[in-house]
Amino acid sequence: MPDIGVRDLKTHATEIIRDVRERDARYVITYRRQPVALLIPLDKVDSNTTAMMTEASETPAWDELTRLGKEIGSQWRSSQTSAVLLSEMRR
Fold this sequence. Notes:
Elements: E1 3-5, H1 6-11, H2 13-23, E2 27-31, E3 34-39, H3 47-57, H4 60-74, H5 82-90
Parallel strand pairs: 1-2
Antiparallel strand pairs: 2-3
């Protein structure tokens, strides 16, 4: 498996993803020459890993953040959006 740095991954993402998809290539992603991740074809990942990835994206913390966002939105009194207010605060 070849190593690829984050900068090279960013620069050549399209070619790398095509290589993974079409040729079943695998890469070790590095950050400052230290391995941090694997890039492998998803169909080569076992069902346990796929299940863990799905569970991680459906955590109770996200549900709670969504609920809080709706609660804040329902009680929002300003005519400006939160993004505008935060932008003004940063100036």
